[in-house]
Structures are given as C-alpha cells and as structure tokens.
C-alpha cells in the first residue's frame, strides 16, 4: 500500500510509522550510544539494560514484577540495532510527565481520526493500547477489504490497510480496514477531508 500511496500521491494512514520526529532526548541517546561504541550486533532478545528498563516500566505501569532476563524479552517483539535499544532504554525511563504528554497527544490524534471516520460514515471499533483504528468499510459497497483499500488509495487519495492479511482465514477480515493515527494533526485532518469530499456510499 505504501508504494501505491507514493504512486497516487495519497496520504498514508496505513503504515504505522509517525510522520514527525521523535523526542530529542531519545535521538540524543541513540547518537551517544554510537559515540560510545555501543553499535555491535544486539542479542535477539535485547540488551540487558533494555530488558531491565522494560521490567521497570512494566512494574511502574501495572504493578507486576517480571524477571528482566527471563520474562521481559517476551514484551520485545523484535530486536533492533544497539543504538536504538539504548535510546529505547532512555525513553522507558523518561519522567512520568513525558508519558502524560505523549498520551494526551495521541489521544487528541485518535479523536481527530475517529470522529472524522464516523463523520465520513464508517462504523469505528474502539481501540486502546495501539495507534491503529479498525473500521467496517461495508457501508461503501465494495466487495472486500482489498478492493476497498485499492479504491481508497487510487480514487480518494488515502491509504488504509486491508485486515484480511492478518487473518488465518482472510474471509474473516474482509469487512474491516485499518487506519493509523500516529501522524501529525494536519495530516489526519487532510485525510479526513479527502474522504468526506470523495468517498461515496
């Protein structure tokens, strides 16, 4: 879908990557790790400091204790380069005020997208713990999620992801598509406006 987005000049609300820079303190931590020579291949389950930071954050947020070496890596879905792991360690240990602001920012972004999608005519399913929103596309009359997403990118200029690709039985996801709200507010509003103007039932 990202290639189609480029080809058609579409706003990409499909892929879950922000279109804005991350916080300076996290970028600086990655740069410092490179300067300090912490740039070797990382263990597949994370550097020890990252595992400890995950366990600390988990305890702080949930009250549960996990073993950094035996359990924390279960929360790491993949391992990335050492400098990025050091940066993630710093981010996980950021003051609570950072997380309060981050949550407020993402909740505002989610509200813009959810309210916009509802106004366009989608049935929106609640989301929490993610920066994706899943909607039922069937009010717009296309046969399945893939056809809808192709129409959306080519004719409307907005990208969503067909959810059937995530199902063992794709038929179970054919009525749903996924949008992301990890974009700046201007981008989210522009995507909603395109859908209001061009998407027809």
Look at the helices and sheets and give the structural class. Answer: alpha+beta
Radius of gyration: 19 Å
What distance lies between the first and last C-alpha atoms, to the nearest angstrom?
Answer: 22 Å
Total of DSSP H or I helical runs spanning 4+ residues: 7
Name the helix and strand elements from N-terminus to C-terminus, one letter apiece.
Answer: HEHHHHEEHEEEH
Mean pLDDT: 92
Shape: elongated
Please report the total strand number as a whole number. 6
Give the proportion of residues in helices: 40-55%
Return residue spans where pLDDT drops below 50 for at least 5 consecutive residues. none
**Beta-strand proportion:** 5-15%
Strand order in the sheet with the most strands: 2-3-6-5
| Major sheet attributes | 4 strands, antiparallel
Describe this structure in words.
This protein has a four-stranded antiparallel β-sheet with strand order 2-3-6-5, covered by helices on one side. A two-stranded parallel sheet has the order 1-4. The protein has 201 residues and is of the alpha+beta class. It is elongated. The chain has helices spanning 2-8, 24-35, 48-62, 82-92, 96-120, 145-156, 185-198; strands spanning 11-12, 123-124, 132-136, 158-159, 161-162, 176-180.
């Amino acid at each position: 879908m990202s290639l189609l987005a480029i080809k058609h000049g579409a706003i990409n609300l499909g892929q879950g990557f922000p279109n804005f820079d991350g916080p300076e303190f996290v970028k600086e931590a990655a740069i410092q790790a490179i300067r300090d020579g912490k740039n070797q291949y990382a263990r597949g389950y994370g550097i020890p400091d990252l595992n400890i930071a995950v366990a600390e954050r988990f305890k702080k947020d949930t009250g549960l204790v996990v073993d950094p070496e035996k359990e924390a890596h279960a929360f790491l879905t993949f391992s990335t380069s050492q400098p990025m792991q050091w940066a993630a360690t710093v981010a996980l240990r950021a003051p609570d005020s950072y997380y309060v602001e981050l949550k407020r920012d993402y909740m505002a972004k989610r509200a813009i997208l959810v309210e916009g999608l509802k106004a366009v005519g989608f049935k929106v399913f609640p989301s929490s713990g993610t920066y994706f929103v899943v909607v039922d596309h069937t009010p717009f009359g296309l046969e399945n999620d893939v056809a809808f997403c192709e129409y959306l990118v080519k004719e409307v200029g907005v990208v969503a992801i067909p959810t059937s690709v995530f199902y063992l039985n794709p038929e179970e996801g054919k009525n749903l598509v996924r949008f992301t709200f990890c974009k700046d507010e201007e981008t989210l509003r522009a995507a909603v406006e395109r859908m209001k103007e061009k998407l027809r039932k």
